[in-house]
Amino acid sequence: MALNQYYNEMFVADGEVRPHYAPFAQWLGETPPERIAQDRHAADLLFHRVGITFAVYGEASGTERLIPFDIVPHVIPAERWDVLARGLRQRVTALNRFLHDVYHEREILAAGKVPEDQVLGNSQYRPEMVGIDVPGGVYAHIAGVDLVKNADGEYYVLEDNLRTPSGVSYMLENRKMMMRLFPELFATQHIRPVDHYPDLLLETLREVAPRDVESPVIVLLTPGHFNSAYFEHAFLAQQMGIELVEGQDLFVQDDTVFMRTTQGPQRVDVVYRRIDDDFLDPLAFRPDSMLGVPGLLSAFRAGRVALANAIGTGVADDKSLYPYVPEMIRFYLGEEPILKNVPTYQLRDPKDLAYTLAHLPELVVKETQGSGGYGMLVGPTASKDEIENYRRRIVDAPERFIAQPTLSLSLVPTFCGDSLSPRHIDLRPYVLSGNEVRFVPGGLTRVALREGSLVVNSSQGGGVKDTWVVD
Amino acid sequence: MLSRVASNLYWMSRYVERAENTARVLDVTWRMSLLVKEPRLQDQEWFAPLNITGTLFPFSGRHSLVCAKEVLHFMALDPENPCSIYSCAKQARENARAVRGALTSEMWEVVNSTWLEMQQMDEARMNARGVSAFFDWVKERSHLFRGVTFGTMRRDDAYHFTRLGTHIERADSTARILDVKYHILLPSVKDVGRAVDYYQWSAVLRSVSAFEAYRKVYRDAITPIKLAELLILRDDLPRSLAFCMRQVSETLDIVQNDRSAETQRRAGQILSQLRYGRIADIFASGLHEYLTEYLDAMQELGTHIQGSFFAPTLPR
After folding, report:
1. Could you give the CA distance from residue A233 to residue A316 in angstroms, rounded to a whole number?
2. Are B4 and A234 an interchain contact pair (Cβ–Cβ within 8 Å)?
3. Do the Cβ atoms of A268 and A257 come closer than 8 Å?
4. Domain ranges, residue A400
């Protein structure tokens, strides 16, 4: 695989450093390798001590791992970010309008812009939400939009995560670590700050409180400390100064949510929940769920508590509806989409299915319901056996899959051992929607540490980098 | 604050305190065993830590003889022993991890890095470092935990429940140390007023950091009755029963709720007996009997704290 078929964020083809990376490249050239090695080691120790670990599913329970942190940042020029930011605002606004629409008037379905059966027949469509008004008409208060840069130097949206996107704590901790280890880098150039993210999130959550009170009671609902993202739940609750609760800490009475405290029950106004819809309320969804709160759906429907994100957002980030997002932007906002969509084959369509089956070694195939990089096929790096096994799964239930051309994710130099090698990255900015849309510049950069790998998920050997938007 | 969180904080600090107290008892036992040469007495020495923590039975289930090396390992490093320093560090960390949001980051770092270092510890390392150096490390981590709690936590309910755990555990532990050591060192009641083996009794004082305090308060040779008075009734000594119970009672008054009246009453009752008790009366009715009654009352107080603050609040 020739490297020049990928976009390298730091170098142009002849090895010259791109202007926005120049200060970092100069620093790298002037800093003794021993100091860098020492500081990389210090970063590992610090992350361990602070306990920034994640649990890995499928391994012995309680296994905690560190997400590898790489000190070479992902640098984005400010003018490039500003365009991205406009695109993110546009896209998430349209997605929230779409969610309101499909649970109310269904205008977009009537107009024939999105196939009705794909929405109403979707397993993520929640009939319980039909006709329910949510505060400010916002459904996805927190969105984590995954972007990649292709060989053409253009950004593409890979997926819109509108359920319970995670990873923002790494964005914050990565920045803290870089500033602690290499303060000189921040003195010589203007890198836009990200540390106020918890403030923005808190502001967003306060805005959606259904009760008009001076200081609404906001809680973060976690599945508990065995969950892979528990560190993040605890971290965010602490940063915002809100209670971190588990299902057993809450109860519902007369459609009102209370938490059990040492002083007796206290009413809750907003639940920032990091539990999937299915586990949220055993009375309404999976009856075997021990994580949720019986009666929560009923309280939510009665408008007595706000949920962030709302129930039923999964219908808008479903991979089978992803191809229609540009159409949603045109329909609701009357604008042309700023961010590009990856061309997508829907295997429910016989023509797309035939094409995909004939081109499996070139394509990426994903389950429409999958996430976390589990259960996907990356054609160009898969073995013959893997492809044939996957082919059988597709033929069994084509409607459960989509296929996309393999994107050439851009590269950033990354420390592998003591030397730098190019590795593939993606970018997840976090978009907050309340009375207005807010975000911090940049997001979480994930890096595939295995040579040639295009899978950046932490559960699959991915690492993280600091993301700099520089003026 | 959340009942579950209050409970985790309370147990987190109980386990930190328990690790420290176990280290103290083991350290003193270890030092004494270097002085005592007679094998029968040595065995008695090594029974003490097991008796104090109530783990003689599980220990004897797995070991035929009580000997220094095995007791040390069992009490310090054995993951199977729920009372070992190792297990306490683990439990403290598990409780802290479940409520990270309620801790300051400094507190979390102390509890977490203690556990990380503890996992690196084995018998070879402990011996290489020196057994006493290991116990000093455990004590220092506990000092650090309390210092960071004191220096970084807002004086809210989280702080109060953390402190409550520390003092309940310590009020329990000092009484157990006293009870067991008296039993070994003073088989005959008529000796209570006499000066006794200096090393033995000063070791008991050192195990609760009260040696210098004894000298300052009494300016006299160490006698068992004065030692007991100091550790039970003296309310300005941070590891005495009276001091710990005053802290417990005051804390309960701060965190009280509409179900906690009985819990507060029980704490107040234990405190009054300490505040107005006389050491001569205690010895007249028997120190062992007195401490047994006290430990039973503490046990019940613990159950009431559980019921008043940590039991899930049921909807009306």
Report:
1. 24
2. no
3. yes
4. 343-406
Report angle CA A41, B121, A60 to the nearest 5 degrees.
75
What pTM was estimated for this model as a whole? 0.78
**Which amino acid, one-letter code, is at A284?**
A
Residue B123 identity: E
Q: Rounded to an integer, what distance in angstroms lies between the CA atom of residue B272 and that of residue B276?
A: 6
> Is B146 found in the same domain as B3?
yes
Contact, A235 vs A169, CB < 8 A? Answer: yes
Cα dihedral sign, B308-B313-B314-B316: positive
Please write the tens of the pLDDT for every residue from B83-117: 899 999 999 999 998 888 788 889 999 999 999 99
Does the distance separating the beta carbons of A248 and B100 come in below 8 Å?
Answer: no
In this prediction the ipTM stands at 0.70
Q: Cβ A249–B1 below 8 Å, yes or no?
A: no
If DSSP codes are grouped into helix, strand and coil, which group holds residue A241? coil
- Distances, alpha carbon A287 to alpha carbons A98, A276, A284, in Å: 29, 14, 7
Question: Which residues in B lie closer than 8 A to residue A219 (C-beta atoms)?
Answer: none
Least CB–CB distance from A260: residue in B258, B313, B316: B313
In the listed set B123, B153, B183, which residue is the last one of a domain according to the structure? B153
Range of B97's domain?
Answer: 1-153
Model pLDDT for residues A299-318, shown as the tens digit of each residue: 999 999 999 999 999 999 98
Q: Which of B98, B126, B153 is the last residue of a domain?
A: B153
**By the 8 A CB rule, do A18 and A11 touch?**
yes
> How far apart, in Å, do the first and last CA atoms of chain A sit?
34
> Phi, psi (5° rounding) for residue A250?
-115, 150
Distance of CA B153 to the CA centre of its chain: 23
Closest to A428 in 3D by CA, of A142, A231, A95: A142
Distances (CA, A) of A8 to A83, A151, A406, A462: 20, 9, 17, 18
CB B15 within 8 A of CB B111: no
**B241 and B132 assigned to the same domain:** no
